[in-house]
Amino acid sequence: xxxxxKPTDEDEAEVEQxxxxxxxxxxxxxxxxxxxxxxxxxHNSPSRRRSVRKDEIPESESEGxxxxxxxxxxxxxxxxxxxxxxxxxxxxxxxxxxxxxNGEYSIQRTPSKGLLGKKLFATPTxxxxxxxxxxxxxxxxxxxxxARRKSTRNLIERTILGNASDNDEDxxxxxxxxxxxxxxxxxxxxxxxxxxxxxxxxPSKRGRGxxxxxxxxxxxxxxDLTAHEKYFFHNRGSxxxxxxxxxxxxxxxxxxxxxxxxxxxxxxxxxxxxxxEGLHAEDFKQWQFELNQQFNICLYGWGSKKSLLMQFADxxxxxxxxxxxxxxxxxxxxxxxxxxxxxxNTVASAVAERGHKLGAQPAEMLENLIALLEEDKEQxxxxxxxxxxxxxxxxxxxxxxxSRLSSHPQVHMVASADHPSFxxxxxxxxxSTYNFLFHDCTTFQPYTSEIDVVDEVHxxxxxxxxxxxxxxxxxxxxxSLPENAKNLFxxxxxxxxxxxxxxxxAAMEGNEYDENEKRPTNFKxxxxxxxxxxxxxxxxxxxxxxxxxxxxxxxxxxxxxxxIQSRKDALGTEMLSIPFRKEELETILEDIMS
Amino acid sequence: MSDHEEENSxxxxxxxxxxxxxxxxxxxxxxxxxxxxxKRRKLGKQKAALDQLQSSTTSKFxxxxxxxxxxxxxxxxxxxxxRAWFHTEAQIQTxxxxxxxxxxxxxxxxxxxxxxxxxxQTNRETETIPAGFIVTGPNIASQGFLFxxxxxxxxxxxxxxxxxxxxxxxxxxxxILKKVIRDATNQKTxxxxxxxxxxxxxxxxxxxxxxxxxxxxxRAQGSQAVVVAxxxxxxxxxxxxxxxxxxxxxxxxxxxxxxxxxxxxxLDLFQERLPRIATRSLHGxxxxxxxxxxxxxxxxxKVLAGSHAPLRLSTTLVASLVxxxxxxxxxxxxxxxxxxxxxxxHFFANALSMLTPxxxxxxxxALQSEHYEAVRMLPSFKALVKRLIETQDFSRANGLLEDDTxxxxxxxxxxxxxxxxxxxxxxxxxxxxxPGPVSSIDLYMATFDGTLSESxxxxxxxxxxxxxxxxxxxxxxxxxxxxxxxxxLDMDLDGWAxxxxxxxxxxxSLQSQVSNLADQASKSGKPVRSSxxxxxxxxxxxxxxxxxxxxxxxxxLTEQDKQFTTLVDxxxxxxxxxxxxxxxxxxFLHEVWLYDSMLPYRDVFTPxxxxxxxxxxxxxxxxxxCDCCESVEGLSSTHPATAILxxxxxxxxxxxxxxxxxxxxxxxxxxxxxxxxDERDALVLFYRALADLKSLGMIKQSKKKADHLAKTAWKxx
Lengths: 594, 717
Description:
The structure holds 2 protein chains of 2 kinds. In chain A, 55% of the residues lie in helices and 7% in strands. Chain A is α/β, with parallel strands linked by helices. Chain A has 3 domains: 2-241, no CATH class; 270-440, P-loop containing nucleotide triphosphate hydrolases (Rossmann fold, 3-Layer(aba) Sandwich); 461-593, no CATH class. In chain A, strands 2-3-4-1-5 form a 5-stranded parallel β-sheet, sandwiched between helices. The radius of gyration of chain A is 32 Å and the shape is globular. Chain B is of the alpha/beta class. Among the domains of chain B are: 126-290, 3-Layer(aba) Sandwich (Rossmann fold), CATH 3.40.50; 451-580, no CATH class; 609-711, Arc Repressor Mutant, subunit A (Orthogonal Bundle). In chain B, 55% of the residues lie in helices and 7% in strands. In chain B, the strands form 4 sheets. In chain B, strands 3-6-7-2-8 form a 5-stranded parallel β-sheet, with helices on both faces. In chain B, strands 11-13-12 form a 3-stranded antiparallel β-sheet. The longest helix of chain B has 50 residues, at 71-120. At the A-B interface, helix 2, helix 13, helix 14, helix 15 and helix 16 of A face strand 1, helix 11, helix 24, helix 25 and strand 11 of B. Chain B: InterPro entries: ORC3, ORC3_ins, ORC3_N, ORC_WH_C. Chain B: Its main location: nucleus.
């Protein structure tokens, strides 16, 4: 059975290539959501596909043993015969293969032949490889490579321009054919040789030194795997099959539209959410008692707990008799520029009305603050801390200071936590210092103040440049800048576009090379950017600026308008980039030039 | 930040939303009801006569019994809680203090010795710095407490400053030195600038991390030791400690340093981490601290199994508490907090907790009729009535059901004879007569399960008596008598010879008979054994001729042997009877002193945030209870947007095409052809849901493909 399914799959692929209108969706079987939507419009193809399958099955059944390479398919007849001959007479094959149209096939096939008799996952012996390399004519390899390169470029262009999917046109088919040639090889081999994953040893690629793996592994597990091996087989990373649709047809929201629409929208669950909050509010008395008993409280669960906590603050305020001694301090943990010093200073200002200097180091500040608190034992501070687990407060040093502050008998802390893994912030020592009681407060309220929805989503979509107000914003800013700045920006765009050109190619290769996202750093590096020093050199060459100082001043202007981003790569070199996509960059460049 | 940020989709926008931290003054408080002047009550303050209205807002507890509970009762409950917990907390504190006392004494003696040694060496050519290594074990949570005690103790006993350092405080040598000097000289911190100058002797300006300042201070004060304690030395950067040691040892001829290290792992490991040069300049003594497990057991014995314990925990709760203690928390503080929370829950949420017998508390007020109703609802009351009916005592059962005064009598009598005391006594007898060491926690569990007589503890004792010689049995019986007469200090049990005179008499009479036999045996020179012991010996000696041997031994039982055997039988029967105690759950009104509720404990101390969040998203109905998505799990167009997207997220592969996700989402919310929602509005929802998922750490931008998301949770499912 395992063997049988493969040929059908492959046939599909091949038939697809022939079909004019077939869409890539067919392959995205793994993606249910996408399937659900897209199948609805596409009624023909399944049936057509089925018919192909019907034809195919008896044939594949007729194949006797898996080792036999004999495999029939209308479209791949030519390959087939050669394939056979390869198996029959390897030495001869090498002789004439360069002359053949698709010489690469034979080259790639030959090593697999050497592996034919071997058992599953056996490493090809060096012997076989070396002879292979030696015997392969160099010219062929080069020729293949250039063909491949050309088709690669072709493909990349299409993908980047985003208007065509792989199988749209016949002409592209050829490119896809060349480009995906070793993939197909792998598939054909898969029938005969289960370990086509050995294909990386193909000589044609060795020359480049670039490790090239076959790109798709066989979808069905090899037989006689033990249970645990089967588990890993099923859970291995594989290339995700997704469609090539992109968001170009969708007009994204900007802040204005988002907020105006969000405000006028009505949540059908508003009453239920309100009721839920009311339920939690019934516990206020209990929480107050718990705070009173030197416990601190941590609220978790889905939904913003901000309004609930503010209600609780009101509740506490109302129950406090002496508002000069008992203070409530609210900390918004989600505010980006929040520091622990802000927290300590605010608490201090609540204790001593006029400004009280605490010192510079947080630890020192904490000690002074505690001393200040203990001057008056009746003084009580209730610390309401929204989102204790958001980025500004995540650092261990900050958490340790917070925990020690909260453990003081005159300080009562009520915190909320949003992330599902927030307990990982604290080790046993911190946890015991915090002395938290946890309450599930699922409110279902939207995180309106905690999350800047539009910015977050645009970051997800890789369009953080929209923050400036899109490309219009950029050109607006540029108009008000001196000529030098404009020129610098132009240079930067040019460099970045060049880097993108390289980068996307590299990214493609990277994809091919590393399917399962095991090496995130790989992809990080592919993010296009311009090295700081390179840009500086360019700028000096073009007489944009004469010294580093002036260069920095120019850059600062861009930074202030969030038109560029700066980050350190793995080696610590500073990379500058403009947070826009390629097309947008191109239009900006045109704007500047005009 | 963008200009739009201050706009808020929910009408209620506050300036404070984007303020990092501020002191809260409610704006809308004026139009609420005017706040009344109230005072926080302190413990032990006598009750002020409060009118109903006032105390309903001031009292810390809520009115129970459907809000019909009277103010006095609420107040009484609260005071009862304070008293009960105060009592227990004091006991725990005493145990903790005692536990560390030996260590404290040793360390203090060590510091004093080193001072002594130093003053003896007139030439002041000390080669090494004295260092104390305090092995605290893995319980880092209680290190803080220990070192607090330690520095307090040392300050009182030793002439010289004590500085405790924590790894989290400072990360570089300069900061540590500053802290040492600041704490040692007890100066107010310099507030202006980082490197303030202090005028040293001779008008020289000294930086505030110059040990010369400390030197001057030591000379001026005549201090004999400067103790620097590293609370969690493993967490410090090794090089930092090494540098500090090097520095300190170069000053050792002028400043009498003593170093203390708190070590959680082991001394060897710690030494390995330090460079040779640092270890060479130290000479150390090792101190062991009592480990958490034994401390917890002691605390347990006192506050849960102790006779004065106002509240006891049910066995299931104890089991989970102990499990968490052993497998996760490993900390006395966590144990105490859990115990405290049990107390809090009991008195906060149970109206009948005002009947809880707390030592030294005044008897409860007149009960309200609601209280009687509540008592009649208790399972233990129902069981009582059932028992009465089974014994044909209808009039009494009727009285209990109908007449509050009869019920009150019953309540009072059942609380006054404290049935639990008997349990504890039996447990103590078992513990003291058991042949091997007994884990008091396990014994407690067996006792409070009501399975003591079938438990290992009982059967082991019974087995052991059968094998004893008369002399051994004699001392065994003596142990029991002693246990009864002296009680147990650990459990606050006084001797109860008078109350249990029957059993005691039986035991003593048995004892005298046994000792008689033993006397006779020693006179005659023939050992007396019970038939059980003989059989055992017979079995043991000759295995081959087992059968023959046995019958032979049986037949040669002497008269004394037979007598002894009957005595052992009698004792066994009596002990068995004594050990079979009723389960506390069968005792009337056990709900008042036995806390048995797992849920609050589990929820409050061991939260499962991921499970809760994902459940909320998976089955919103569980929380919202709305009509529209009643009990629909999974995908439903009526669910909140984030829940829909989450559901779709679960069904995708590891790479998600955003456009396809959006079209699927739109299809879902708009209901296909129906167009229930405008596309742009749907996009708003989509944005929000996407941002939510991102904040939950489930997705990130994928670099592999344009407009794709990478899944970061639930991958490959």
